[in-house]
Write a structure and sequence with these properties.
about 35% helix, globular, alpha/beta
């Protein structure tokens, strides 16, 4: 890896409680990290998966497609996936302009509380 280049996305299971798994995305969700993201979400065995994008610094079309696919996979399994993004961040603006909020809730810290209560 060259100096100054951002590291790949790291995945962290923050919490698994009462049927909810919270996953944090740190770094990029892009063509390089999307396959890993898909694997992590596919292995998340819970009715509610909260994907915390507040640490996501870059999201491209491939990453967005991975999010849409994860939402659909959770719905097919009878669950739901919710997204958490920092308000007014580039990631939040991309999510808003993509229309993904028509498929699943996208919000801020309040959404974290709602997912935990589900």
């Amino acid at each position: 890896m060259t100096a100054g280049r951002r590291t790949p996305t790291d995945w962290t299971e923050l919490h698994h409680d009462a049927g909810c798994i919270r996953l944090a995305v740190h770094g990029h969700l892009d063509v390089a990290s999307a396959p890993g993201f898909r694997s992590v979400v596919a292995a998340a065995d819970a009715p509610v998966v909260l994907v915390d994008l507040t640490g996501c610094t870059f999201l491209d079309a491939i990453g967005l497609g991975a999010l849409v696919g994860a939402v659909r996979r959770q719905h097919l399994q009878g669950g739901r996936l919710v997204l958490l993004a920092t308000p007014d961040s580039p990631v939040a603006r991309l999510l808003a302009s993509s229309g993904i909020d028509r498929l699943t809730p996208v919000g801020t810290d309040r959404l974290r509380e709602l997912a935990a209560a589900s």
